[in-house]
Amino acid sequence: MAKIDITKTELVWPGKYNEDGTRQEVPRVSLPFQVIETVNESRATREAHKLPLQNTLFDVYEGKEGDTFEAGWRNKLIWGDNLLVMGSLLEKFAGKIDLIYIDPPFATGADFSFTTEIGESGDEIIKEQSAIEEKAYRDTWGRGTASYLDMVSSRLRLIRDLLSPRGTIYVHCDWHVNHLIRGVLDEVFDTDNFVNEIAWHYFGFKRKTASNFPRKHDTILVYAGTDEHTWNVQYKPHRPEYVARFKKDKSGRLYRDDVNPTAGGARTIYLDGVPGDIVDSVWDDIPPVNPMGAERWAYPTQKPEALIERIIKASSNEGDLVADFFCGSGTTLAVAEKLGRRWIGCDLGRWGTHVTRKRLLGIENCKPFEVLNLGKYERQYWQGVTFGESKDKPLAERALYEYLAFILKLYGAQPVTGLAHLHGKKGKAMVHIGAVDAPVTISEIDSAVDECAKLKQSELHVLGWEWEMGLYDLMVEASKKKGVKLLLLIIPREVMEQQAAAKGDVRFFELAYLEAEIQQAKKLTVKVALKDFVIPNTELIPDEVRSKVRKWSDYIDYWSVDWDFQNDTFMQGWVAYRTRKVRTLPLTCDAHTYEKAGKYRILVKVIDIFGNDTSQAFDVVVK
Q: Confidence class of residue 208 from pLDDT cuts 50, 70 and 90?
């Protein structure tokens, strides 16, 4: 390895530097975001005029809204890898985020499993981590401390570029890694921008330990972008022993005589003139989340709202932009919402994103927000990076060929050549693979089915990332009439994760089956009633889960309706979901009245108890 000139004290780990002695670069990939859902906002508000039908299922986020709610700002909940997400935010948000709080995983034995509740009984089960979450764990700890430091350092370097001149970052950690993270923060933000090391001392049951004091505090490291960072002094209630030093005057006011520390001489201090006890760097007045409390969301790393409230109040003002790129169950976003801050949140977990959405919906007068991902753009990037090595073919043709071969191999199928719409064969079934950047369409499946019928092949498996709405029933029945058994399977995001694919940690799942009925009770008025919901591959659901399911609706945690779907972003027009207190879920929505008769497309979205979503479109004529 080349010689590295050391000019200052720094933390070094295997992989920090390249073989030639240069610093490993952080991937700065700028990809467009897809807006997959808009919550608490009407379509009329979002669109000045009705858009024509599009070929894509989502809007592309253009970032044209203003920097205030009045100027059209919408808060953002993003599902995806925070490294790619932050890199993609740089174009429009570099130097614009006023406060960032992160609580990265810091326990070497941590995992992404979570507790979820089933049906009306509320019986709790443990949902094991998905392959993509297992991959995140391997990326974080696969090479021990070195890979953890790679993960943290690359993200902190992006965070530095996102912080505004008034910005501050709070990094939550504990005794496992706080000494390491402090070294990385010193390097990325400079020691001159260190603000505080906060000890959050929480109380609880203390077990006698044989060789050490019980560990009862976390560390929160605070660094500023510049010396112009926002700072608001925080106060907490006076301690009883301090109040006991005061006595009442004739009017009943509490006071005490004291020595003036600056001017000398005596002075009188009135208790109602002292705003409180100034909060210092030891926070011992905020308990952890009560396991039985209303604030609990059964999320393993959930932090109390009071802790985040203190941070947000200290280092931001109303209207400022707050971000959390490991947002978990959404505590930072929920508190920012309640305190009138704008916010951006990101998490890799599908379930965490779903819990956050429900949590925000439970806040009174929650402002409109968007749910985004990188979707097809992340897949296009992955396709180009993964399959762009060979020089003997044009890039597009080469990438497509190698992409098809890769997916077929993961699915356990053999490639076939010379056919227009069929790409492989698995056992007796032919296989068609959808493109990375477009939903599988009805006409696409129809062409593959016709080719199967022409070749006298009786079974077709279609693998796709996204799907044109409403094709499930239509295509399965149409294919059966042509003598072809049709199986529709989702290509999971795990195929883009190198380690997951190499280990074979990839499963292709059938589309869930959703049956709903559109009811027109009176003029211009429509209701949607759920009639059935079937999760495929139930043999993969643990026995203890299946034993607690009493009826098909127990698998549903949340459902919502877009009354005028335009083949773009899902606009939530009505929603119902289970909470810890209210476990019942209505299976018929409230009536919706249209302004005028005509043809409308109604989209129904269901999210199951594992955080997976299924959508079904219905074309109706409203009279």
A: confident
Q: Based on the fold, state whether residues 409 and 553 are members of the same structural domain.
A: no
Other CB atoms closer than 10 Å to residue 67's CB: what's the count?
A: 13
Any idea what the CATH number is for the domain that residue 38 is in? 3.40.50.150
Please state the rounded mean pLDDT for residues 163-169.
Answer: 97
Query: What's the pLDDT at 539?
Result: 57
Residue 616 lies inside a defined structural domain of this protein: yes
Tell me what pLDDT residue 25 has: 86
Q: Are residues 69 and 167 in the same domain?
A: yes
DSSP-derived pairing of the beta strands 321-324 and 282-283? unpaired
**Strand 247-248 to strand 217-224: parallel, antiparallel, or no bridges (unpaired)?**
unpaired
Cα–Cα distance list, 2 to 6, 21, 22 (Å): 12, 5, 9
Q: Which domain holds residue 467?
A: 379-509
List, for residues 566-614, the tens digit of each pLDDT value. Answer: 877 889 999 999 887 788 899 999 999 999 999 999 999 999 887 888 8
Q: Calculate the CA dihedral of residues 203, 209, 213, 214 and round it to 10 degrees.
A: -20
Whole-number Å distance between alpha carbons of 613 and 623: 31
* C-alpha distances out from residue 505 to 141, 279, 501, 511, 619, Å: 18, 48, 6, 19, 38
Based on the domain organization, do 337 and 467 belong to the same domain? no
- Domain membership flag for residue 85: yes
Residue 437 scores a pLDDT above 70: yes
Specify if 22 maps to a domain.
no
Structure tokens at 288: 């952890």
Contact 172, 258 (CB under 8 A): no
Cα torsion angle, 450, 455, 461, 466, sign: negative
Burial state string for 124-145 with b = 16 or more CB within 10 A and e = fewer than 16: ebebebbbbbbbbbbbbbeeee
What is the rounded average pLDDT for all residues in the chain? 85
**Residue 201 and residue 78 share a domain:** yes
Q: What is the CATH number of the domain that holds 542?
A: 2.60.40.10
Count structural domains, the chain: 4
Q: Are residues 387 and 310 in the same domain?
A: no
- Residue 389 sits in a domain whose CATH number is 3.40.1350
Q: Which of 350, 373, 396 is the last residue of a domain?
A: 373
pLDDT in tens, 214-255: 888 999 999 999 999 999 999 999 999 999 999 999 999 999
Please indicate, yes or no, if residue 124 is contained in any of the structural domains. Answer: no
- CA distances, 583 to each of 515, 577, 608 (Å): 22, 8, 14
Measured distance CA(94)–CA(84) in Å, rounded: 14
Which of 373, 394, 412 delimits the end of a domain?
373
Indicate if the pLDDT at residue 129 is higher than 80: no
Cα–Cα distance measured from residue 316 to residue 104, given in angstroms and rounded to the nearest whole number: 21
Answer whether residue 528 shows pLDDT above 80. yes
- In this predicted structure, the answer to whether residue 541 has a pLDDT above a threshold of 80 is no
**The pLDDT of residue 442 is above 80:** yes
Quote the percentage of the chain above a pLDDT of 70: 85
CA distance 81 to 88: 11
As a whole number of angstroms, the distance between CA 161 and CA 455 comes to 57
